[in-house]
Amino acid sequence: MASVGGQVTGEVTVAVRVKPGASRQRVGGSYDGPFGPALIIAVTPPAVSGRATEAARRALAEALGVRPAAVSLRTGTTSRDKLFTVDTAEPDQLTARLAALRGDQT
Question: d(Cα 100, Cα 92) in Å, to the nearest integer?
């Protein structure tokens, strides 16, 4: 945790399973991936030249209610299984939002 402008910020790592070439964009559901429970993101662009990864990054930002610039790819450039890092001032709320999107049981 760091303090920026008097506000505490944090970083949340999000495991994602990308489904490129989908008929429509969709964020939701869970996949038991190599990084643990992953959020499923279906995107319309194909897995060519990073287009699906970029679409997934933007879809994740929109679903979590953060700026696209706050979401960065940590690992998985050429894989369907990716880890994204999200910079946020509200890590607890973001984690709860993520759990809801995955459909985690509480």
Answer: 13
- Number of structural domains found in the chain: 1
Print the domain residue range for 82. Answer: 2-102
| Cα dist from 41 to 4, 10, 37, whole Å | 30, 23, 13
Query: pLDDT by residue for the chain (106 residues), tens digit each?
Result: 443 444 446 899 999 999 999 999 999 999 999 999 999 999 999 999 999 999 999 999 999 999 999 999 999 999 999 999 999 989 999 999 999 999 986 5
What are the angstrom distances between the C-alpha of 33 and each of 15, 23, 38, 92? Answer: 8, 23, 6, 23
Q: How many helices (H) and strands (E) does the chain have?
A: 2, 6
Contacts of 26 (CB under 8 A, 6+ apart): 40, 41, 42
Question: Domain holding 14: CATH number?
Answer: 3.30.1200.10
